[in-house]
Amino acid sequence: MTNPVCLSVDAMGGDHAPEAIIAGIDLFAIQANGKVSKILLHGQQQVLEPLLAKFPNAAKLCELRHTETYVAMTDKPSQAIRRARGSSMWNAVRAVKEGEANAAISAGNTGALMVLGKVLLGMVKNVHRPAIAASWPSPDGFSVVLDVGANVVCTAPQLVEFAILGEAFARIVHQKESPSVGLLNVGTEDVKGNDVVREADQMLRAAHLKLNYAGFVEGNHISMGRTDVVVTDGFTGNVAVKAAEGTAKLAAMVLKESLMSNWLYQLGALLSRGAFLKMKDKMDPKNSNGGLFLGLGGLVVKSHGSTDAEGFANALHVARRMSASNYMEVIQENLSAFADGQQEKTS
Amino acid sequence: MTNPVCLSVDAMGGDHAPEAIIAGIDLFAIQANGKVSKILLHGQQQVLEPLLAKFPNAAKLCELRHTETYVAMTDKPSQAIRRARGSSMWNAVRAVKEGEANAAISAGNTGALMVLGKVLLGMVKNVHRPAIAASWPSPDGFSVVLDVGANVVCTAPQLVEFAILGEAFARIVHQKESPSVGLLNVGTEDVKGNDVVREADQMLRAAHLKLNYAGFVEGNHISMGRTDVVVTDGFTGNVAVKAAEGTAKLAAMVLKESLMSNWLYQLGALLSRGAFLKMKDKMDPKNSNGGLFLGLGGLVVKSHGSTDAEGFANALHVARRMSASNYMEVIQENLSAFADGQQEKTS
């Protein structure tokens, strides 16, 4: 796409907002170097103006849109949703609806962002429920896991829709030519699992989609990158990605503690410091930050609530890549083929 | 318990059986040093006798029980179950039923072991379905996760039963005085999750069990050791533990590759080799090998199919600790209290 990309940012969402958000935009402005024409920055003018004065690269890119209210990170989901209307998050998403921006980005309350995404942008045709897609490191890059929390219970057709949505995401954001898609299960034999995954497996095999479906995968295959995309319900996906995060953290903790336990190890660690930094970088959740709400009628990127500037810059890159792509058209072919097949079965 | 412990081993189950099994018993015989009086060894005499000749410590402890047939690792679940009757696995479990041995241990086909455990040993009173409990490293020791694969779909009362079974397991095998128990969910707020986990949470709060219930935990809390026991259904638990395994493997791969990438890092790695070994040891699945089928009318320990000698020795230690404990009595108090409460509700 040659059109200039415009992004719409909720400056007030996130544990370290708005400082980390503005610092992240500043970093992104340098990295993206002209690939984004403008960022609409939604939040309290009195708070954001002094920050923009400190970050000149961000200031050059941003157009400040004052909004007095915002959704607090400590709000309970029900509160958050009540407060969402007219907030900085609301206005960030509304700019996408009104065609002013290509994508909205927020590190704020996930539940509220999801609900107002649905209210303002509606769903893509032939998608029943949105899914959150997350990226997780694998030996050759990243695995895309979805859903990681939008739907705690899923039907088989929903899982097929997630496969279609996630496959296009992997193609665009992780630049895989023909991403393979696996269905998460407790074993790879076709008798394993519950009724929903077995039905989804049958559907994926029968639907004749333009999609490289590889069958069942197991939990360890996420980090091992057995397939580029791992499809599951929002309960299992959320637990799996968090279990992986916890383990990466434990491994780093144990290693650090062992290395500090005597001076010889410390000396060795000093010499091979570069290697540790490489490992840390590979396993760093910041580098895979930027989950997407797939299936909505517009692009909404969810950054980790606890993100720092670097992580937020990464979420902006995800939004930029998706904005510059023809994602919405790409998914329509498979979605229509699947919906037509489903209709034939019931008619 | 002052009575001598007798264990019953399926020598033919496992990817590296029977070599790894006999080598594991040999290692265990040295480590356990007199704490086990006898091991009944079930399998093909013509194969096992030459092996026992090579492992004198194992030979001293083992009483060979010839069995011609065995369940192959490559058998499909349905085949495996048909072949199970009269196999080495069958005889290993039957010795527990007949009071000859305190616990059975197999690295063979999980599905077959589960089915014949139920057929031969029945269920503990007030437990509806057995669960497989696995141990996973945490900063201070191990977290117990259950179920990791016996039940892909669970009801809320089943999750409460798992909490009771797992709590006693953590107390005995990991020697925690009052293990805390968490219920795996996608968030810690009480509105999160699906109906089953919310109902189980209410039940655990209301049941007045002798149990340190800590509420909901998330996937990352498994490796972080937020609670000593993590209760979940067999689908989610299987995915979570495998996701953690995959991530530990990825972290080790990435670190090794980085350290080998130039001579300075290699030198550093050489100096701090001891620290890496400590980390490797901590994250090594071998050290947490030995899952238990909890809820059966007798003790059955499932070793990882791919186990080596060291891992199998560890599974034997789990069996020994459980055998020397009063596990069956320990769980009865909580199980009865819960069953009585459930009955009152329905009457």
Task: Describe this protein's structure.
Two copies of one chain form a homodimer. By secondary structure, chain A is an alpha/beta fold. In chain A, 51% of the residues lie in helices and 17% in strands. Chain A folds into two domains: 5-127 and 295-325, Isopropylmalate Dehydrogenase (3-Layer(aba) Sandwich); 131-285, Isopropylmalate Dehydrogenase (3-Layer(aba) Sandwich). The first copy, chain A, is built from 14 helices and eleven strands. An eleven-stranded mixed beta sheet of chain A has the order 3-2-1-4-11-10-5-6-9-7-8, sandwiched between helices. In chain A, helix 1 links the parallel strand 1 (5-10) and strand 2 (36-43). In chain A, helix 5 packs parallel to helix 6 (110-121). The first copy, chain A, is globular, with a radius of gyration of 21 Å. The two termini of chain A are 40 Å apart. The mean pLDDT of chain A is 92. At the A-B interface, helix 9, helix 10, helix 11 and helix 12 of A face helix 9, helix 10, helix 11 and helix 12 of B.
What topology emerges from the helices and strands here?
The structure is a homodimer of 347-residue chains.
Chain A: E1 5-10, H1 19-32, E2 36-43, H2 45-54, H3 56-61, E3 62-66, H4 77-84, H5 88-97, E4 103-106, H6 110-121, E5 131-138, E6 141-146, H7 156-173, E7 180-184, H8 195-206, E8 212-217, H9 220-224, E9 229-231, H10 234-259, H11 263-271, H12 273-283, E10 291-294, E11 299-302, H13 309-323, H14 327-346
Parallel strand pairs in A: 1-2, 1-4, 2-3, 4-11, 6-9, 7-8, 7-9
Antiparallel strand pairs in A: 5-6, 5-10, 10-11
